[in-house]
Write a structure and sequence with these properties.
Elements (H helix, E strand, L loop, with lengths): L1 H9 E6 L9 E6 L10 E6 L4 E5 L5 E5 L6 E6 L6 E6 L3 E6 L9 E4 L6 E6 L5 E6 L8 E5 L9 E3 L3 E3 L7 E6 L6 E6 L3 E6 L5 H4 E6 L4 E7 L5 E6 L4 E5 L10 E5 L15 E8 L4 E7 L5 E7 L2 E8 L7 E7 L4 E6 L4 E6 L35
Parallel strand pairs: 9-13
Antiparallel strand pairs: 1-29, 2-3, 3-4, 4-5, 6-7, 7-8, 8-9, 10-11, 11-12, 12-14, 15-16, 16-17, 17-18, 19-20, 20-21, 21-22, 23-24, 24-25, 25-26, 27-28, 28-29
Keywords: Repeat, WD repeat
Protein name: WD repeat-containing protein 89
Pfam families: WD40
Length: 386
């Protein structure tokens, strides 16, 4: 952790994206995988203005913007095996694939859901064969919808229908989906029903596919994989709780819960500052350590390390954002960090970088473009557990 502490302390803002004509909250970030070359890396950002922006990773110059979306966007992901394909899920019941080499507003491929589907989460598995999206609850139904994603690289503009659905395992909005980093058949889903479910999609039916159900006792906001060989899952909740489980212990007498914190804000000690919310998590392979990213409403970013005996502050990045940070991508290969916030800014942090202009942008005051799907952090302290 000391090395991570040093890395974090050395991070400085290298670049800021130019503010666009229509400022928007930056809700999700992904980076193209280095398939062909390290130099042509791109950054995709999902915005509250119903658009996807694609930037050059080194300069943060805007390359593309896809804005023809009829509904709210929920997530953005690059394909793992092709660095020019980026996916987005939309509340209109589609997952779209965009080819960032083409100057067109037309999606390269559209994955259609069923008529009542409103997608609020999605992911694509590590070999780009399967896409899974999670729906809002409509009537009594909530679905995990699956598609065959093969053929995305040939760019023929086609519409694909689902392979099928899982409909029994959650009974409320499915807010987060994450495929296993190296096992293409494993996927974990989290819901406002409090459940975190791990599935093996190679099995014939949903009952057999459900490997494990963990209960967070709260509404799940974020899920991920961690640990050696990624045999652990963790989640964060909308009331800033944290749960961490060891799936490898399922067939043993050992308890699978590694840590359960009802409110992380009460458990992390930060001198002369506070923790207002959690953004997400990241497992650091080299350090074999799970980290949480949190922050303050004024834009400070806190890095928190997780251990079975509790949570500890590793360090803080300040003077970057002027409002709540919504999204991040920590690139462990070059130790750079990308962050996006409610101040409409995309920042690239690098070790020892020197920013040319140090003028801090003012906060984005108008939130009218942000609809109810955007995660709301409770800014009042009344809801805190005393």
């Amino acid at each position: 952790v000391e090395k991570i502490e040093e890395q974090l302390a050395s991070l400085r803002i290298a670049k800021r994206s130019a503010l666009s004509e229509e400022p928007a909250y930056l809700l999700d970030i992904d980076i193209s995988k280095p398939v062909q070359s390290e130099s042509s890396r791109s950054v995709a950002v999902c915005c509250s203005s119903k658009s996807i922006r694609v930037y050059n990773r080194d300069t943060l110059n805007l390359l593309r913007e896809y804005s023809s979306h009829p509904g709210m966007l929920n997530g953005v992901r690059f394909a793992h095996t092709c660095d020019s394909m980026v996916f987005s899920a939309c509340s209109d019941g589609t997952v779209k694939c965009w080819d960032i080499r083409l100057a067109t507003q037309k999606a390269a491929q559209i994955f259609n859901g069923y008529p009542s589907n409103v997608f609020i989460s999605f992911d694509i598995n590590c070999n780009d064969l399967i896409i899974c999206a999670g729906t809002e609850k409509v009537a009594k139904d909530t679905f995990l919808v699956f598609w065959d994603a093969r053929g995305i690289t040939n760019c023929a503009s086609t519409t694909k229908e689902p392979l099928g659905v899982y409909s029994e395992s959650h009974n409320d909005d499915i807010t987060s989906i994450s495929f296993h980093p190296v096992e293409p058949n494993l996927v974990v889903s989290g819901s406002t029903d409090g459940l975190v479910n791990v599935f093996d999609i190679n099995k014939d039916n949903e009952d057999d596919a459900l490997i494990s159900t963990c209960n967070s006792d709260s509404s799940v906001s974020f899920i991920g994989w961690s640990g050696k060989d990624y045999k652990q899952v963790y989640c964060m909740t909308h009331d800033e709780g944290f749960c961490w489980w060891d799936i490898a212990q399922l067939d043993t007498e050992e308890p699978i819960t590694l840590l359960h914190v009802l409110d992380v804000r009460d458990r992390v000690c930060i001198e002369n500052d506070s923790l207002h919310y959690l953004v997400g998590g990241l497992y650091h392979e080299k350090a074999d350590k799970l980290f949480l990213i949190g922050g303050t409403f004024t834009g400070n970013i806190h890095l928190i390390s997780c251990a079975t005996d509790g949570l500890n502050l590793v360090g803080t990045l300040s003077r970057g954002h002027s409002a709540t940070v919504r999204s991040f991508y920590w690139n462990l290969t070059d130790e750079s960090l990308l962050t996006g916030g409610e101040d409409a800014q995309l920042l690239l942090w690098k070790p020892g970088a020197v920013e040319r202009s140090l003028t801090k942008k003012t906060s984005l005051k108008s939130a009218s473009s942000v609809q109810r799907r955007v995660r709301v952090h409770n800014s009042s302290s009344k809801s805190r557990k005393q």
